[in-house]
Write a structure and sequence with these properties.
122 residues; mainly alpha
Length: 122
């Protein structure tokens, strides 16, 4: 009986030890899996943050480039408009001078003709 009791206690103790060991191993395994999952989740989050920053940076760069291009186009158009306006003004001044000269010539010619007509009449 004593031997049986002893055997039972040893078996019970071994079982208890194996159970505790198994439980500790399971807890450890769960922590490792949880840690790996946490690590993967954190890595994925970091990668997503990085990807978002890259996309944001690319978008910002494209927006800035588009804005610079628009400013350049506006300056070119403004310059062309200014140039065309200046050219048109110069042409108008030239036309006005030609017309004024022609008018002056015709007036002088008419005055000379009148002087001649007046002198012939006398």
């Amino acid at each position: 009986m004593r031997e049986q009791v002893f055997v039972n206690r040893v078996v019970s103790s071994e079982l208890s030890c194996k159970t505790q060991t198994a439980m500790r191993e399971r807890v450890f395994a769960n922590r490792v899996v949880s840690s790996e999952l946490s690590c993967k989740t954190q890595t994925a989050m970091r990668e997503q943050v990085f990807a978002n920053r890259v996309l944001s940076s690319e978008l910002s760069c494209k927006t800035q480039t588009a804005m610079r291009e628009q400013v350049f186009v506006n300056r070119v158009l403004s310059s062309e408009l200014s140039c065309k306006t200046e050219t048109a003004m110069r042409e108008q001044v030239f036309v006005n001078r030609v017309l004024s000269h022609e008018l002056s010539c015709k007036t002088q010619t008419a005055m000379r003709e009148q002087v001649f007509v007046n002198s012939v009449k006398q």
